[in-house]
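SECTION: protein entry
WANTED: fold as tokens:
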Amino acid sequence: MNESYSIEEAAVFCQTSIWTIHRRIKEGSLKSFRAGGGRTVRIEKDELVRFIRENNIPMPDELAPSGKRILIVDDDEKIVRSLVRYLKNKGDYDIETASSGFRAGVLIKSFKPQLIILDIMLGDINGREVIKMLRGDPEHGHIKVIAISGYIKQEEVDDLLKAGFNDYLAKPFKLSELMKKVEHFLESQTT
């Protein structure tokens, strides 16, 4: 059985009242189960984490996944699927994805990634603007960011690094090359 929490514990994690948690269970947006002979309502950890992320609630440290957290931001669905599949096969990574700069901003606050793989050319905002906002944020400005793009000329790479990106990969790139960079940046955070 997975780890689970009472309604009272869920309310504390979600920074709300027990009545709000009851309401969310009743409307079906938060799944629960009965334990202890049907007397106690419990919420599995995975379900509570899902609910917290979907509602953009800051993730409590007690619920944060044990794997390294990576946020992939790219509006090309095929690239995102490929990166997620490759990284999940290579290690214990907790991965979230975003197809827009706006969604990336929301996930940075709720998911608290340790590493972001960020496409420069997004549909709603340029990756340079995302890095500018990130580096200006004292709470999240330390996050490592690898820029990816198929439209950057070699002479523009220095500008990306000066703007705050930690590294850059030109599309198309070898997944093994990306993996080396991912391991380097995540390893540097644990030493």
About this structure: The chain has two domains: 4-61, 68-190.
